[in-house]
Amino acid sequence: MIDIKFLRENPDIVKQNIRNKFQDHKLPLVDEVITLDAEARAVKQQADDLRANRNKISKQIGALMGQGKKEEGMALKAQVEKDAETLKELEAKETELQEKVTKIMMTIPNIIDPSVPIGKDDSENVEVQRFGEPVVPDFEIPYHTEIMEKFNGIDLDAARRVAGNGFYYLQGDIARLHSAVTAYARDFMIDRGFTYCIPPFMIRSNVVTGVMSFDEMDAMMYKIEGEDLYLIGTSEHSMIGRFIDEMLDEEELPKTLTSYSPCFRKEKGAHGIEERGVYRIHQFEKQEMIVVCRPEESPMWFDKLWQNTVDLFRSMDIPVRTLECCSGDLADLKVKSVDVEAWSPRQKKYFEVGSCSNLGDAQARRLRIRVKGKNGKYFAHTLNNTVVAPPRMLIAFLENNLNEDGTVNIPKVLQPYMGGKTKIE
Prior knowledge:
A hairpin with a 2-residue loop joins β14 and β15. The chain is an alpha+beta fold. The strands form 5 sheets. Strands 1-11-12-13-16-10-9-4 form an 8-stranded mixed beta sheet. A 3-stranded antiparallel beta sheet has the order 5-7-6. It has 13 helices and 18 strands.
């Protein structure tokens, strides 16, 4: 959510930003919110004037009563009572107008960074850099679920009977590999100075609307029936929500945290063959990283965060590339975003395994996460990035480490987490 003062003073910049995100249907909202904001401020001024006048008259009543001028005092008292009714109406109107302003402001997209490429959707994202040499072996690589099934490592049929499509049972060495990757990612981030955290896996609605846009919320979140609770789609939600309504001391920043959690997502819509198996599912586990920092430090932390993911994948000899998300592919709260994609030897192309985002002060403004600094108070900046999400990571891992005889190599960094095994056979 952008600052209403910024919108009020720079409506043309806000409108151009909306055009850059190809959301022209939101253009009328800018003028609408300016009108509502002006009306709300006018009503507030009337209410403030009435309150000031009430305080002034109250003192006069006391003085008149003290002088024995009861009749004059009672007349002023009647005026105060009449003004109280008017004030009540004004306060109700002010609340109504402010709610309308807030609702619209929550749908107007954040101002994107000038470096973001302009494009309609993810097909216009821009490759930034490749890390590692993509290799296509001389033998055919099976679909990832076929590789897992040869190790008796996955049972999709049983999962469908128990929970429906979009779920799975992992078992044996494949399940162990899943846990090994998560544990390695945890220790990798701890070694980089991040504090390990296991957060709540459910959050209240005011946290949901604080960390994501309404469109994302509808497409992703599962609600707990009869309670004001949602299952998290990623631990970033509860990790950023942790600081709701807090006044942080500038000297405590940055907050650098890495969190483990299961994640739950609706994943609406039909998907093609490349998104079956464990690629796009309703429940998975993930290691996340988040940063809460001063505004001037967020660009530096953004580069550090995506580099962490690149370094993690390269430590397991998996080729990756970074992709700059274009304006039309950015969620409304994001200022800038980079996807990390891993090489798929089977598909002979890259696919997304993580996403790094700088949200500026959008989440902090919604959640009222403020910082007390030397020069006054301000909203913090928040960033997040996927360290690793093992289901997709397993696809990249198995394809890039598969041998012609069907065995899978275990990189040195993972061997301690796999009981010293060098191969899965």
